[in-house]
Design a protein that fits this description.
Lipopolysaccharide export LptBFGC system permease protein LptF; 2 strands; DUF3311; single chain; 66 residues; mainly alpha; membrane; transmembrane helix
Length: 66
């Protein structure tokens, strides 16, 4: 399996696998309940991870010419 595929799978695990772990309201982080903070954190991390996947993809910078 390529590293790009593994990196792209990390946000899926973080969001769906971690929700049962993060299902708490009491600790407030940045004024948000912990579960909302967890989701927002993974949305931001997903953007960064996808930027890394784009940079690692060899076909990303090539344009199709006719």
């Amino acid at each position: 399996m390529k590293i790009q595929h593994l990196l792209a799978f990390i946000p899926f695990i973080g969001l769906f696998g971690g929700l049962s772990f993060a299902n708490k309201v009491t600790p407030y982080v940045l004024g948000m309940p912990f579960i909302l903070f967890w989701i927002v954190l993974w949305v931001v991390l997903t953007s960064g991870i996808m930027a890394i996947v784009y940079k690692l993809d060899p076909a990303a910078g090539k344009e199709e010419t006719e």
